[in-house]
């Protein structure tokens, strides 16, 4: 038995529980069964995890099989953001109890201080001003009724906790938050402890969905590894034991039975005081040095914010009336790092957590979320085929226009000049490094695992950077090191070995995300089958006349973001167009552009965004760079989007370099004329 912490209700919450977030419905039952047999007595779930019915079936089987009794299990679920209205709260717990096949919950939490319209998903249009006191009043009635034997909150900052505690008749028993060695939540922990609120930690090893990109992970942190070696334990066990000794229950998640058992083996030993001091001191310091404002950038991204300076500026800037949306998620992030949100700058409105955003749309591009938790801007400047003597001016113009992604590669033969442009931007104060997303690539001649670290180091030196936001394998082709692309220089690729070296770069922090380029469906499936760290991005040529539907669907289903180079087509594209037209001269593209009073290029780029892919147009003309960026304050209606499916799709030339190759091909000429 794992023991327990005492809640302010007198109930006991087990020290360790199984988290079910991100566990697929078809395997969550087996994970729960294995966990309970291993000794776990707490199961944490939520409607938004989309597996609660399967959790209920697993619980029913456990009770029927006599593995455990209901009174011996502690079950937590949560109230979703769309059910905050007091009249919706009883219905929400009723649905959860039905799904879980239970009569009561041991703990019911408000999932976060965010409210959206009922039945919708979070977006700019669906945010509503939260009324936590009213929602909490309905939660208290559930506690009175016995349907929830304890009530609490999740993802509440110190300020939100203080606000709730000031009005609560029944104080929250628990605040469940992300908490681990690299996000130790000291201020929040101390507040909760002083007010009798138990802190429970989800993602106690960190998480791919965590808003902390670019920071060395818990399990690869050298201090954690050192302590684990001294105690002859795994880094995961050390991280869990640290949490318990800090007084918080923990909710690791796993579907692997051996890992589930290993995670539970943390009760017959402890971390000595001197090592606890190292973990609570040096590890925390390493996180602080990694720019905590990143949390705001990542949490606020869906609403258009890029960084604290932008948020403070636009919140204090007088704006027009009539187009207000909630930005509660930004307020949460601001409060987490101790900076008070700016007051509502415009006309009176029911919530102070409101900000005008439609005026930002042309300026703030937002972002797509990668599977690492990082955000990739929806538009970037491609630097392929841009001459070295003009690439710097193009980058400078792009960044001043609002671009926040620069895509480059050693094979473009202009990377040193890209680096000089970035250095000038930083030195001139035009932008800070943390606000730019920089991508580069591993060339074909550097696929040997021992060559990969040297390749990224050369790139970082050329770019005058300490890390890359994204590092891609340039293609599933390998040549002899130091040679050019030709038949006699080809080698059999070993993508598995190359990817292993890429994963080490991700672990080290030199590449904050890793991915691939020019990978077809089969190559993607092969890589995903062996990857420890799945690719975050597949960058391919993609546009209205080569829509890559099969590849897009595969990537979306596996959590890989599709990024489109040459989104307007390219003179160097490896395509022979079936329709006989280019992207910009395609009659359907032109027709849509005329109806929307936009240029064909803007329509093609906007199509890409609405298909869920980031786009990387390239240009050296400042006016064109600005025009390409003007795609965020309008959209293509559904009926016109449907027209794009009527466009005849291009086909690859038989000799395209990434198709199976024969020795009779002139690869040097293909290299010159192919999009890379």
Automatic annotation (TrEMBL):
Highest taxon listed in the record's lineage: Eukaryota
Keyword Methyltransferase: no
One Pfam family cited in the UniProt record for this chain: Aldo_ket_red
InterPro entries referenced in this protein's UniProt entry, alphabetically: AKR, AKR4C, Aldo/ket_reductase_CS, NAD(P)_OxRdtase_dom_sf, NADP_OxRdtase_dom
Keyword Manganese part of the UniProt annotation: no
PROSITE patterns per the UniProt record, alphabetical: ALDOKETO_REDUCTASE_1, ALDOKETO_REDUCTASE_2, ALDOKETO_REDUCTASE_3
Domain NADP-dependent oxidoreductase: 16-280, 378-647
PANTHER family tied to this protein: ALDO/KETO REDUCTASE
Name listed for the protein in its UniProt record: Aldo-keto reductase family 4 member C9
Family statement drawn from the similarity comment of this UniProt entry: Belongs to the aldo/keto reductase family.
Keywords recorded for this protein, A-Z: Acetylation, NADP, Oxidoreductase
GO terms of molecular function: oxidoreductase activity
